[in-house]
Amino acid sequence: MSAAQKVLLVTGGSRGIGAAICRLGLEAGYRVAVNYASNKAAADALVAEIKDGGGEAVAVRGDVGKETDIVAMFGAVDRAFGRLDAFVNNAGIVDVKARVDEMDVARLERMMRINVVGSFLCAREAVKRMSTRHGGSGGAIVNISSAAATLGSPGEYVDYAASKGAIDTFTIGLAREVALEGIRVNAVRPGIIDTDIHASGGQPDRIERFRDLLPMKRAGTADEVAGAVLYLLSDAASYTTGAILNVSGGR
Ligand code: NAP
Q: Which keywords annotate this record (predicted)?
């Protein structure tokens, strides 16, 4: 592998949509940094798979809900690869189904800390490395939003939907802020995608329950989201910044 080979960091890259982005990143020629929060085995397995495929990868632990972890994670990528060209703010959580009048402050603060503040702090670290203003050579950032940002998720998790609405606004603002610094910033809004996140939120049957409401009558796959992310990271999207791409099967 050449040191000139571009480097991609994906938060929550060890499972679900993040893992699909890492795999497609390998195919696109990136060296890949796979972030995870606690499931080291899943991250190590993906890194081994990428290496078996002839790629270069590292697993980097770090909870995006903690600033010290975020700073350490970017430092680990610096030490492993010495550059950063592409960054995906993918790590995100849902909580159990609840109405707004049932939500306590601990739930709301955790949701916003991980999904919103974590994305800001990670982008801060990425911009410090990529921006020509800071001596970097440019790069691309993709934020993973959600169709929930436009639907609101009533009766299910309005807090999550609002956190993704914040990601949409963040994407537009940051894109314009760094447009002259060699960095493009875009977002992808997945619809219902077949990953473990639904079971993590206590709804393992969520895809089945929603299927008839989906225009295509099926959930999307993590690979279908990853394709859109890799496009936005690529030079093929060189005039695209501040865009929010729905990958939601028409929902
Ligand atoms: P997932 O299958 O639950 O995967 C979660 C990944 O994020 C794992 O790698 C996990 O690491 C990591 N993670 C969780 N909390 C973290 C934290 N605090 N810090 C760092 N990493 C953390 O999730 P997914 O469905 O792929 O979702 C990925 C993104 O897409 C999220 O932002 C989600 O909101 C968004 N999205 C998903 C859907 C969908 O239907 N699946 C729809 C719209 C948007 P560990 O394995 O160590 O826990």
A: Oxidoreductase
